[in-house]
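Both lines are retained for reference:
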Amino acid sequence: MSDSPPNRVDLSRFDPGNYNPGRPFLIRSLWFLVNALFLQNPLNPSSSLKVRLLRLFGAKIGRGAVLKPSINVKSPWFLTLGDNCWIGERAWLDNLVPITLGNNVCISQGVYLCTGNHDWSDPTFGYKLGEILVEDGAWVCAGALVLPGVVVADHSIVAGGAVLTRSTLPYRVYAGNPAVEIRQRNMKSDAAPVA
């Protein structure tokens, strides 16, 4: 055992490494204000206004998006939504790097999609970043946390309050902390009813 003291975290030496926030400081500052006034604001129920503002700042958004009040998007230029995506109240898309949602994805109330973490073994607390992909038909239920680098596979479900630390398999349901597979997702037939 060494007589030297162990290394200690020193946040005054924080080093973002080669992280690129994607836009100049002025644009990021303007987005901060727009986000606070129009997306995080519980008094703005208009999905169409939020969609227009997100697109204005670089988001790629398909048709039919439903964006509830009080959502938070860190970097719209790192956001892609497919068609018919739903994002529930108080969802936080903390996208230091890209978050991509496929078609017909539901992100429920209070979900936290976190693309950035810190290297706890690094005394300068450097970033550990990873993109998040939520594939078609997937549902991230209320209060769930999805960590950096995770793929929520096609039509899989992340149960309420789950902490998803690794990628899922298609058509499976995951729950717990850390989230584990608990069952298969079996879909009902969508055959049209007979008149």
Q: What stands out?
A: The longest helix spans residues 25-39. The two ends are 80 Å apart (CA to CA). The mean pLDDT is 95. Residues 29 and 83 are 29 Å apart (CA to CA).
